[in-house]
Amino acid sequence: MAAKLEGRAYLFCFVDAILNKLSSLDVNSTPTAKKLADQKLLQRLRNSLRATRLVLDDAEQKQIRDQEVNKWLVDLQDALYLADDLLDELSTKAATATPTQRDPGNSSYHYRYAVDSVVEYSDGDEIRTVESMQDIVDKLESIVEEKDDLGLKQELVEDPKDMSWRIQSSLVESSDIYGRNDDKEAIIKLLLDDTCDDKLSVISIEGIGGIGKTTLAQLVYNDARVKEKFAIKAWVCVATIFDPISVSKAIIEEITSLCNMVNLNSLQTQLKEKLTQKTFLVVLDDVWDNQQNLWDNFLKPFLSGNKGSKILLTTRNKNVDSVVSNANLHYKLDILSPNDCWSLFLKHSSLSTNSRQYVILEKIGKKIVEKCKGLPLALKTLGGLLRNEENEEYWEKTLKSEIWELPKDKSEIIPALRVSYHYLPSHLKRCFVYCSLYPEDYQFDKDELILLWMAEDLVQPIENYTLENIGCAYFDELVARSFFQSSSKNVSLFVMHDLMHDLATFFAGKFYFSVREFGDCQKICSKTRHLSYMVNPRDPILRLEEAYKGAIHMRTFLDVHFSHQPYGSIKLESDSWLFHLHMRCLRVLSFKSFSIESLPDSIGELIHLHYLDLSYTPIFTLPESLCKVYNLQTLKLRYCDKLAMLPSRIQELVNLRHLDIRGTYCLKEMPKGMSKLKHLNLLSDYIVGKHEENGIRELGALDNLHGSLCISKLENVNNSREALEAKMGKKKHVIILKLKWRREGDIVDVETARDILEELQPHRNLKELSIDGYRGEIFPDWLGLSSYSNVTILTLNRCKNCRQVPSLGQLPSLQYLEILGLEGLERIGGEFYNNAESSHQGTPFRSLLSLRFDKMHCWREWHIPDEIDVFPKLENLSIRDCPVLSGDLPAHLPVLEQLSIVGCEKLACSLPRAPKLHQLTVKGSGFYRNAAPHEVLISENQLAKSVLECLPHIQSPCFQDLEIHECWSAISISGDYLPDSLQFLRIWDCSKLTFSEPLQHKSLTQIDVTRCGSLTLFPLGALPNLKKLSISKCRHLVSVPELGFAAPHLEELSMQDCPEMDCFGEECLPPSLTTLWINNCQKLERWITSNGLQSEGLTHLMLHKWNEVKSFPREGCLPASLQSLGLSWFSNLETLDCKGLHQLSFIQTLTIEYCPKLENITQENLPASISKLLIRGECPLRSKLEERNDPRIQFDTA
């Protein structure tokens, strides 16, 4: 029997939700509810809802083609919203009323509302409610009557009628395909791989509709290597209905010939015979169904084939292949690159690059391509629509049109995407459409979206599951079906493809609206229920008033800024107007980033409100009336850093599930009675008060807490008994725990402090733990128990009394460990690695990736066990500000990649053997930067020499750059110290630098030496790959001997501010040299002036700050090969000698800068080869040159 996919009408679950609310409403709970029941209004409502429910699937199918049906659904949805609002109001009245008997002998009830009841009750309210219900029921009954006139029938959801867009064949024209070669090769590699032990492997190509999954499968299927590999090949288009009989029959017909069997057993028997001891490839294209039992039976014949047989399936749902087989490989198909998109578009639009219109249409076409966001089917659709059409106006119209407005007979992308939506379950359709409130390209957070769904009653309760878990399942299913995808910019966030966003917007209709600019306000109508806004921060918020007035039943008022604006960027000239509008029905209200300092008392009238976000606002007080908002589930106060106190009666918010106060640093303590908030799922922070009613005991009743919890001001816990009553061990869903004591405080009993921490032992599901400011000397034993097998991150910070680190080495999953500010700790010994009381000892720190020590001012000794290898997976080791630490580091760290030693002057730098190390920082202080990848950085350190001597011991082939600066101890550089892989050597501000022998190195390409005052001789040995040498401000450097022989491939040489440097030696400069800078080198100036510069390959010469020459250049002074010459700041230069210039037969550019005495030129004519003479700054010669009117001569006075 064919499987039926789950899709039901969008409104189906909405009707069910209202029916459930009707069923759960106690008609005796309030006088109003009883009156509604007595007048049969509730029963009439129920009957109408049931009648519409029966025809919703048919109506949803027909609305695309029939505008009257579409209007019927709009009217129905509007009425459903009204009914839902009224039922929620009745439920809230009932929940907040306290029934009391009038007298002991009377069975009738009257209703006394709590003093601060959220719904003030009066006869007028009762009349209004009854009248409203009457109107709603009348409207619904009228809608029910219309269904027959519209021909709506009671029937199950059908498959979409138009499936012509779907590819049914395995044939493909490869010339029509762009940008899929890498994908093709990746899939073929998987198909040809025989290393899997399973007889049958399943490979799935996953992705959004229209991305090209079938096309890629066709390319692979027809490849010669695949044809040669597989003895049997079959291609079947499964499509939306998975029928094992039809699919089995189709495979047999692909393998042999026509098959007339209709019995599944006979079909499978024959299929097994055909596949036995054969290597086969079966492609199942466009698979949707993931029912385990159907697939288990279907796949039995395929297990008879040879090892290496494969099933290749394409799907929009990544959950499908895991059902098909456990041995599966996922291939996520990505969008096309911009260049490939343009090529594909050009192909299908037939726009020729030789066309007269190409220049005009190219700009529009690229915008159209951008609109398609890399989807090949969209590119083909829009390209085909413009085929042979060169009218600019038509192209502009296509660009501005929505994809849903295109002619249906010419667009394949519309049904291709709509079919994905069609088969969504009803509850997921509503959740997906809700996301139309987000702007295009908006990056949204999973947990945040789930909270919004919950606030809007889009998450349907399931027994024994929390709403959060149900919402998480919803979200994961939408990801699996490719409606959402991970953001490429931030892996923790998600995005919707633009066409998916268009799909959501299309089905959202009038009920959702996003304010992008205030000019759109007139589009809001009475049916609008959900409004999001992303306005210019400089616009006054009062302008939103005009947008809001049209929406009289608004449920959502949501901020969706792309990034958090600092508060004050959105101004509220007056906050009262918001609460005078039609806000009574609000479920979601976000004032995030508003410049709002307080809320009016009328906030308590928002009885439907489930979600309130005041994050990033300067609010300093919350009204007590907020506690009347009985239905509030989520209260976000992140980074409200002026808020000093929560409302004292917050415990009355009994439905509160999420209280986020991260970054609300001014909060002094928690309100009393937090233990009454039994439904709290997230409590980001608990600030322990000094009283029993707001002490740590209040946490004891909150066993349902999930995620992260920070408990601060633990100094207010008096004894271990109070800590025990917090029942931290029962909070099995808290996976991140932060325990904080105040930075400074009274002198404490260290034993009491330890006992308190002992009783704060968390549940063993914990993943991350931070202990900050703990005042004991010893940590409790639970901290290192191997039973905490999920702990991956651990931080110990500012535990200043601590004398011993806990035994952490046997935490099996610990990956990141930070020990900071343990100012009393002197020694880390063997207890760090193994717990003496544990009988099961493994490799210490077997999973640790990162270890950091910082601000350990008394730490003197780090014991490293010799008998065992510790830290086998350590990638990052950082030791900072440990001034008295001495001894050695671990001898062997096989996978260490980053090592930082900062402010540890007594630490002997016997560096570990670390063959994968590629970032090494050794500094005397924390200032200046750290090493970049593939760099060694030695800075402000007295131990630079010992660090250099240890570099060869590291045995790392990854270092390319060595920088040594501000090291004042004696340093003698030898090529033996330098890693073989080194390419760049930079040394500066090392006052005692010397070279003990001629520097030799086979890989060095660049050397920079700056401000090394003691350097007199820079001897060079063999440097065969040196390309660039720069020496500056070495005031005692006399020479660089053997330069020409040592660096035969040198291309650039710079000598600056080296006044004692007198020559380049007898061997002259290497013939490879092309560029030379000489700046403020007096003796070198004299030598060149007297002897001339001999370098036959030199093409670029820059001379700066020559103070002695009066005429330049003389004949034979400069090499004839020069192409450009720059003379700047020649303070005494009087004459430009053209005889010398005319010998430079290749000279093209001459630049003269700031030569204040230059006023003569020896010849009238410049060399013919010069194309540009630039005079910059003060120069008397300028006036003479201006008279020549030579276009080659240019002047710059800037």
Which helices and strands occur, and which strands form pairs?
Blueprint: H1 12-24, H2 31-38, H3 41-53, H4 56-62, H5 67-96, E1 97-101, E2 109-113, H6 123-149, H7 181-192, E3 200-206, H8 213-221, H9 224-229, E4 232-237, H10 244-255, H11 264-275, E5 280-287, H12 292-298, E6 309-315, H13 320-324, E7 328-332, H14 338-349, H15 358-372, H16 376-385, H17 392-400, H18 413-422, H19 426-434, E8 444-445, H20 446-455, H21 467-480, E9 485-486, E10 493-495, H22 498-508, E11 512-515, E12 530-533, H23 544-548, E13 556-559, E14 570-571, H24 576-580, E15 588-590, E16 594-595, E17 611-613, E18 634-636, E19 658-660, E20 682-683, E21 685-687, E22 707-712, H25 720-724, E23 734-740, H26 750-759, E24 768-772, E25 793-797, E26 816-820, E27 827-828, E28 850-854, E29 861-862, E30 876-880, E31 898-902, E32 919-923, E33 935-939, H27 944-954, E34 961-965, E35 971-973, E36 984-988, E37 993-995, E38 1006-1010, E39 1028-1032, H28 1043-1046, E40 1052-1056, E41 1075-1079, H29 1082-1091, E42 1100-1104, E43 1111-1112, E44 1124-1128, E45 1135-1136, H30 1138-1142, E46 1149-1153, E47 1160-1161, E48 1172-1176, H31 1182-1186, E49 1193-1196
Parallel strand pairs: 3-6, 3-7, 4-5, 5-6, 11-12, 12-13, 13-15, 14-16, 15-17, 17-18, 18-19, 19-20, 21-22, 22-23, 23-24, 24-25, 25-26, 26-28, 27-29, 28-30, 30-31, 31-32, 32-33, 33-34, 34-36, 35-37, 36-38, 38-39, 39-40, 40-41, 41-42, 42-44, 43-45, 44-46, 45-47, 46-48, 48-49
Antiparallel strand pairs: 1-2, 8-10, 9-10
Helix pairs in contact: 1-3, 1-5, 2-6, 3-6, 5-6, 7-8, 10-11, 14-15, 14-16, 15-17, 20-21
